[in-house]
């Protein structure tokens, strides 16, 4: 399940993932939020994302993984900053290893650093 995080600037998409994440979650929650952020970004076209993976590592369906890939690559040049909050070492290492693919900045925060991640993504 994906849940939007509130109290963020219009060009920042904040989302928290728990339990099973499906294609429907992307279609109903994340894709519209990214489209709204892109509209708010105007000519600049740069948006930011705060992705909180929560205490329980979410279970992504194959369709959700595909939606995530399409969304990320479809707007590759639009990502200014991406903050990922997780305590999963393997995921943190993977994000750090592959972060160079994204033209913007990518930073990983531990679960107890959500406030710091919010500050960084909005600064």
What characteristics describe this protein?
alpha/beta; two-stranded parallel ribbon; globular; 123 residues; 5-stranded mixed sheet; Transcription Regulator spoIIAA
Q: What would you say this structure looks like, in words?
A:
Helix 1 runs parallel beside helix 2. The chain has a single domain, classed as Transcription Regulator spoIIAA. The protein has a five-stranded mixed β-sheet with strand order 1-2-4-6-7, with helices on both faces. With 123 residues, it is an alpha/beta fold. It is globular and about 35 Å long. It is built from four helices and seven strands; from the N terminus they run E-E-E-H-E-E-H-E-H-E-H. The termini are far apart.
Please outline what is shown here:
The chain is of the alpha/beta class and 123 residues long. Helices cover 41% and strands 25% of the residues.
Number of strands: 7
The residue ranges in which pLDDT falls below 50 over 5 or more consecutive positions are none
Gyration radius from CA atoms, angstroms = 13 Å
Helix-strand topology string: EEEHEEHEHEH
CATH topology: Transcription Regulator spoIIAA
Oligomer: single chain
Give the strand order of the largest sheet, numbering strands 1, 2, ... along the chain.
1-2-4-6-7
Largest sheet properties: 5 strands, mixed
Whole-number total of structural domains = 1
* N-to-C span: 28 Å
**Top-tier CATH class:** Alpha Beta
Number of helices: 4
Integer average pLDDT = 84
State the helicity in percent bands.
Answer: 40-55%
